[in-house]
Amino acid sequence: MKRKDYLYIFLLIMIPLLFLFIITSQNLLFGNKVDWFNQHITIADALRHAIREEGTIFPTYLSHLMSGVNIYYFSYYGSLRFDVLLGALFINVKMIDLFIGYQVFLLILTNLTCYFFLKRHLKRNDLCFLLSLFVLLSSIFFQFHKQVMFVNYMPFLFLMLRSIDHYFINHHFTGIIIWGSCIVLHSYFYCIACFIVCFIYFVMQCANHKEYKKPLFHLLIAYVGIVLLTAIYTIPTLYVIVDGSKSVSSTHLLDLLMPTFSLKGLLYNNYGCGFTYLIWILIVYGLYKKKTRLLSLIIIISMFCPLISFIMNGFLYARSKILIVFIPLIILQAGLVLEDFTFRINYSMLILIILPLFFITQPYLVCIDLIVSLTILYFYKHHQQIVFIYLLIPLLVVYFNNPTTSFISTKQYQNYSNEEVETLIQRNKINTLVNLNQSKQNMNQTYQNQITRISGYTSTNHKLYNSYLYDTLKLPISINNRVAQIDQNHLFYLKLMSVDSVVSKKKIEGYQKVDEINGLKLYQSQDVKPIAYATNQLYSQNQFQKLKYPYTLDTLYHQAIVKDGNNDYQSQFIKEDMGLKKEYQIKNNKKTHINYQLNRKTNNEIIVIEGDVINHLPLQSVSITINGIKNKLSKSTSPYYNQNTHFTYLLTAQQLSISLSKGHYDLKNIQTYSLNKNALKNIKVDPLSINKGKDILNGTINVSNDGYFITRIPYDRGYQILVDHQEVKSEVVNEAFLGCKIKKGKHQIQIKFTPYSYRLGFILSYFGFMVVFIHYLIERKIKDERKY
């Protein structure tokens, strides 16, 4: 390398560190207010503790989230990422420090790998340096402190592309396998799109070398090697995806075929590549040169056509964030065009260049950008260094796209992290905790796996558990999606899910305050359903599914819902007229607040209000809050439309404080019910006496009568129930949970779990590792022989 190379490398390392210093000097963290803490930090912490608990880098179970769940529901976040593994090794180091450090490292590594990738194609090192800075100042800077799985594969994508370059020199492809596997482990959702980009690049290199058959066969072998090497991760994850659920807004074919002239996948947008107008001009110029025409055409079609985004997003939606994977090809194309650039414009070129001007929502910024870009390109041939002045434009865009308000402050982080809750956990005996303070932020927080949570958020959702919460219990949905399983102050939710402890600033009905710190109160109750128990009070599943809400609630509390149940339990809920009309028409220009006193005819303490919502302005959301309980119907264009058209409220007060969002909507079929709180007492079951161990559940039980063994563990394939060391058939009980038939008498119970297809994945990965390692040794031997 030349002396200037070392200078450029030094600057590419120091500039991101300078940005980090500027951010942290304002008492900000390199993280975002939304999603960053409640998903990336808390899940990474739970994953590293799972590694420690199971004593393997391939853990299978998260016992402390969602009441116990297959860990592959959380592999979307990269359960085998290097920072998670490092976190398991240094368990006493805060995960936030490791996480931020690793993301900054990957950001710097992206700069460096981009620079070395471009050096293989461009003659001018200063141009490689400039274009590497363009990548730094693209959307990846935003996403590295926001949704990191959108970009944390990027340095490995550049390394995979460099390995393709090396292949056409020495015909070795082990590097392709290794870096491709790193992409999968960091972001399996983006790996297919990355491999499509690499395939495009590989075919282009085949064309340059005028050889196709053998290289493409080798690439196929490399891709098979990646599949084998990562099978322990991808195969169980694939099953989870297929068997899970994901609620997304519908996409129409006509919309997919309509061109996106705004180029949101390429220009300015943080959820696209986030480049500036100069890049678009260079791509257009590339169409008019034979050497660069094909790549420009591929990029333009990909950026204009939503169908490409739809396909690359796994047919879920046509969001442009997936187009971030094209950054290496786009920046390479910009370099190839700029290195041999001559300023000229014809009519067709001019039309393509200015076309996005009429569709981008920041016309003033774009016009300034266009004028500066054309001016610099006009003088570029004779004054090539002038292009460095253009860095002011992407710097300006990064400044506006990353305001200080987009970063999380240290004070906000302290509020989210709930250190007071950790103190309460240390001072009290807690098994299962519901935390109603900052519930959206802490839903994945396990506090070093000291307690069990029944909440949880992951994009690959547990279908049965989610349906139980929102279709059976009909918990209120307060946000735009129904994927997030947020802790709620709902009496049946707390009692049925064995919640013995609740952290809240407000009083919790049915629980007693036992501790308090800085306004946060800890409430506890032992009058909850056991974690696992036996009962002979069995209610038919078919009959239960015919019951209307809320008659299902106390039936579920008193009975075990099984396939062969025969009890004729009668719900103790009564329908009661409390003075509310059957329907209301709401036309609000702004949010309104009203108070209402219910007209009661009974002394029952538990009240249920339910009704349907018809939104006449579907492009606007609807929310109604009663006594702090919020229901929301998201707008129809929301990426994860929540479909919450039936609002329910479980209350214990007759005085209603109601907040109505602005909009035009109807409330119909309003019904009110009541229940005496004594209906939730004196439940006789045979609880499991739990022993500590490495099993999912282990203990002894005295069963009074033949019946069913019931757990609160969400049912999944892969569980094994052993009664007195003999495996029995597991079933879905209570609509979503693991259970089995059990005979009268004293029994030893063990529950074990192995994810479906985990053993197949392990065998394939072991085989893949051996094959790749042997192939690497062969490549090394061939390389050594060539030296002589």
TrEMBL record:
Keywords, sorted A to Z: Membrane, Transmembrane, Transmembrane helix
Residues annotated as transmembrane: 6-23, 99-118, 127-145, 176-204, 216-242, 266-287, 294-316, 322-338, 350-380, 386-402, 756-778
This protein's record includes keyword Membrane: yes
InterPro entries reported for this sequence: Uncharacterised_YfhO
Domain of life of the source: Bacteria
Name of one Pfam family that matches: YfhO
PANTHER family in the cross-refs: INTEGRAL MEMBRANE PROTEIN, INTEGRAL MEMBRANE PROTEIN-RELATED
Protein name as annotated: YfhO family protein
Species in which this protein is naturally found: Faecalibacillus intestinalis
